[in-house]
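[Structure tokenization] protein backbone as discrete codes
[Encoding] learned vocabulary of local backbone shapes
[Protein] chain in single-letter code, fold in tokens
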Amino acid sequence: MQDPFFKQRGHIRTVFINPPVGSRVNDWSAYRPNSYDGAPDAGPIAHLEGLGATEEEAVRDLIEQESEYFEPDAVEPDESASIR
């Protein structure tokens, strides 16, 4: 998946959470390690976290949230950043 905000925001990290509940809807979390600090007094952008049943869904959720705050980078197809 191409990351349209890589130049502005950096790499995306994902974590398999697997909460002890019957639903598998939010098993994966995606965030940007250089922006997510979890502090309650941080701005709305610092709290962006994508959630999903799969790793790809969590990344898509994060990118959708970021699109509300940022314009996508002008990235040529061969310069696209990978998700780590």
About this structure: The chain has two helices and three strands. The longest helix spans residues 55-66. The chain has one domain: 6-73.
